[in-house]
Write a structure and sequence with these properties.
With 417 residues, the protein is of the alpha+beta class. It is 52% helix and 8% strand.
Length: 417
Amino acid sequence: MTDFSNVSPERCPVSALSDTFHLSNEQLEAVFRKARTESPVAYLEDIDFWAVTRHEDIKHVLSDKEKFSAEITLMPLAPLAPEIRNLLEERNFSPRPTLSNNEREDHERIRRNTQSAFSPARNKKLEPYIRKLVNDAINRFEADKRADLVRQMVYELPALVLFKLLGIPEEDVKNIKMWADSRLMLSFGKPSLAEQLVAAGHLADYWDYCLDLVKKRMEAPMDDLPSDMLAVRAGDDRILTIEDINNVVFGLLLAGHETTTNMSANAILTLLQERNSWEMIVSDPSRIPSAVEECLRFRSSVVAWRRLAKTDVTLSGVLVPAGSKVLCFLPAGNRDEAKFENGEHFDINRKDVRSHISFGFGRHFCLGAPLARLELQVILEALSKRLPGLRLAREQSLMPVETVQFRGPKELWVEWD
Ligand code: HEM
């Protein structure tokens, strides 16, 4: 494994990641610590981004819509080759910015009306299904006394929950997962041209699938989010257009899958490393919601989130010129000692446990946060109740996933007696 323990703050952790994908949690956190104290706002020449690592600065960047635009949030890290653009055009692939990268006035309207469909009642309906998925997974591996919790539980789980939310039938699940992986690779990986062409075909397949799904729900509503959104719309384009609904359905798969898979693995890993905290939730499950928040703060799965500076702006005394691309390092802000007392320390009893920025901040704050919290809570409840002696297996690499935007272990081997 490459040693980045001496990485200077000027050497961007994200560019280091894009070279190797091999930075461990501890190495990444050491880089963030150094950056936050020595150069909290730094221009990273090799990738042409400004890195921002302090809590207050990140909140400012994410929430000040006069000075920062979210339009570059989902832009592929590597520009798409002309062949890919042609293929997507031929396939009528035409999603438009709707939520996380939408800077138009209609963001507020679409968000408000999506939120009323994506309601606590909808999450409540999903809860028994989430519990069943988690318990079925434990039933399958319980007798083995050993499991890779990524492969055997948390890789599939958030995708299956999203499929249920979106009303995607079981028989289509395999295809959709393949398309979703391709989309992720195209947006945040470093694919070859041949891989890009295959992935772009999958992207267009998934777009067509979403259009078809919404059309079917218009003809025959079911108990799912697209049908709820159509009900909120009530035939009125001023509330939501069909195009808005197509785009939200298309966008949710990426937003709610990788983020939650990695966060679930990070939470289990952290609690097993911080054994006292694990014992606390085993003996008192009412502490699980606080444990979830502290895991989100301590080891967020979203490493970096992007914005574009619309005007010259000064952050921590440094001038960031208009037109600059900015990377907000959420895990760095989450350990900022200026915000969190003893911020490098994991403590499920801290008072300000919900003040982290793992779900972003301001007008684009994560719409799926209640669902993600629910999934994390159910996973921890079931594991701590059914396998209280759970421990990390000794020999394992904890290699991180190969995307630059997210972090989490590729495998998480655990054991119990
Ligand atoms: C632990 C899991 C998750 C994490 C860490 C996470 C993190 C984030 C972050 C950092 C943002 C950007 C916020 C900003 O720009 O200020 C975001 C936005 C968003 N997330 Fe999540 N997310 C998670 C799970 C989910 C789930 C499960 C869903 C849906 C099912 C979801 C849907 C969305 C949507 C729709 C947006 C865009 C909201 C807008 O722009 O108005 N997320 N999320």
